[in-house]
Design brief:
The protein is mainly α and 483 residues long. The chain has 2 domains: 370 residues, no CATH class; 59 residues, no CATH class. The strands form 3 sheets. Strands 1-4 form a two-stranded antiparallel sheet. A two-stranded antiparallel ribbon has the order 2-3. Strands 5-6 form a two-stranded antiparallel ribbon. Helix 8 packs across helix 20. It is globular, with a radius of gyration of 22 Å. The two termini are 26 Å apart. One of its GO terms (molecular function) is molybdate ion transmembrane transporter activity.
Length: 483
């Protein structure tokens, strides 16, 4: 894969990228070497990039741990393949592009205890989802959809996903968790190696070091999520911005694993896991597609592609992260790794927001994460699950909380009442029905209904299709994503 694929929506940057649709025919051009050479160039300190590299582990660790314990997915194989994905996507995109589990597939595999999905069925679901996203990407259909999706609907999806992460984070902090059953247990004790005091201390450290997340943004000249350039840098924040708070929290939690149970050292087996080709029967394809792929496909389209591209264009306007490229990337990753038993993965707006929140500003952030995963996969293999099983869940909740809040704050650029109305309805339906696809459909229908109302109103001489903004001046509704 020598060049990154870009959508027709970015035709103005065709000299620096690729295009899949050029006057109805397939066109492919490679990016110049200088583009990829800059992918791993540090935009801030190395400590900030290291801090950003652990920004999405609040979602990665619980899901991969549960799939390893419940469904017996090989952790060593997953670590090696996701390490390769991290390094390659960091090179191709030049941003801290996350590699996260496919959450709907994982939820079905973990929660449906009557007849749990087998490894071949999980792989079949991942390959089926990936095939559809790959086709949507290489044909240009994903870019076509991305161009015409209203901005408030995208913000509604981001808001709902961010709040869902935040709600889960609060549960991680307040209650004991059993990831094998997916249920919360007794209230977490105040004291102990995974108590509330520990979680609150980590929370306080991150807030004192990073504040609301604006300080680091101003230090490197980039913009906060959803911000259009307002705000001024705070004096005296440069020293705090250099402290990798998230990395310190993660390293401290890793050390506590051995304090909580020193005997895990004897359970570690050195060397990589054996990588084998997964045999998938016709029945596995049927069960995997019907039970797991069908609920995953709309979530992947919305959160793994549409929301990721919009968020990336907000915080990294200098990098061309197209819907075509992201969709094809998700397809290629799983069309390769799932055949060898690696966990089905995708990109995610929550992971991107988390890595950005904790300092990730370039592909170097996920490069560091990929190197760490590769080292663990080659040295400890599947036995690393013993360490993950003892990681303080409260600390994971703290990391996940900031990731969710950062993603939700992308919605703060909905200045008009009508845009906010569409966004909030979309988010509310997504949260209530636990379905991003349902919220998306409702948001689109509401947007079209409001547009029809304004058009009909203006045709009867009742106005010009404008509505009052919050400041009281007439302004046109910023309802469509600018391309």
């Amino acid at each position: 894969m020598e060049g990154q694929l870009s959508s027709p929506a970015r035709a103005s940057t065709a000299d620096a990228g690729t295009s899949l649709l050029g006057r109805g025919r397939f066109v492919f051009r490679c990016r110049p070497f200088s583009y990829y050479a800059s992918s791993f160039r540090l935009k801030t300190t190395i400590w900030s990039e290291l801090g950003g590299s652990v920004g999405d582990l609040g979602t990665y660790i619980p899901i991969v741990l549960a799939l390893s314990l419940v469904n017996h997915i090989d952790l060593g194989t997953t670590l090696i393949f996701t390490a390769i994905y991290n390094i390659v996507t960091g090179l191709l995109f030049g941003v801290p592009m996350p590699v996260q589990p496919m959450k709907s597939i994982a939820a079905v595999a973990i929660s449906e205890s009557a007849t749990r999905l087998t490894v071949p069925q999980i792989m079949a679901a991942g390959i089926s989802t990936a095939s559809i996203l790959f086709v949507l990407g290489v044909t240009g259909l994903m870019s076509f959809f991305y161009r015409f999706i209203p901005l408030p609907v995208v913000r509604g999806v981001q808001l709902s996903q961010g709040l869902q992460f935040a709600f889960s984070a609060i549960k991680y902090i307040r209650y004991e968790q059993n990831f094998t059953t997916g249920k919360s247990g007794e209230p977490r004790p105040w004291l102990g190696l995974d108590g509330l005091v520990l979680a609150f201390s980590a929370l306080l450290l991150i807030i004192l070091v990073t504040g609301s997340g604006d300080d680091a943004d101003h230090e490197d000249g980039s913009l906060p999520v959803g911000c259009s350039g307002r705000g001024t840098p705070r004096r005296g924040s440069s020293f705090l911005a250099r402290i990798p708070a998230a990395l310190l929290v993660f390293l401290f939690g890793s050390a506590l694993c051995f304090v909580r149970d020193p005997s895990i050292i004897r359970d570690l087996k050195f060397g990589p896991s054996g990588i084998h080709l997964v045999r998938i029967t016709r029945e596995d394809w049927k069960i995997g597609f019907l039970r797991a792929a069908i609920p995953q496909i709309p979530l992947s389209v919305l959160n793994s592609v549409i929301a990721v591209c919009k968020l990336s264009s907000d915080i990294f306007p200098d990098r061309d992260v197209s819907a075509t490229a992201v969709s094809a990337s998700v397809g290629v990753m799983n069309l390769v790794g799932c055949w060898f038993g690696a966990m089905p993965v995708c990109h995610g707006a929550g992971g991107l927001a988390g890595q950005y929140r904790f300092g990730g500003r370039s592909g170097a952030s996920v490069l560091f994460l990929g190197v760490a995963k590769m080292a663990l996969g080659l040295t400890l293999g599947s036995s690393f699950v013993r360490i993950l099983g003892l990681f303080p869940i409260g600390l994971l909740g703290v990391l996940l909380l900031f990731s969710g809040v950062e993603l939700a704050m992308a919605s703060r650029d909905m200045w008009s009442k009508e845009s906010s109305f569409v966004m909030l309805v979309c988010a509310a339906v997504s949260l209530t029905g636990s379905s991003a696809a349902l919220g998306f459909v409702c948001g689109i229908l509401l947007y079209l209904l409001l547009k029809l109302r304004r058009t009909s109103f203006s045709s009867f001489g009742g106005g010009r299709g404008f509505f009052k903004s919050d400041s009281g001046h007439e302004a046109e509704a910023p309802l469509v994503v600018p391309r």
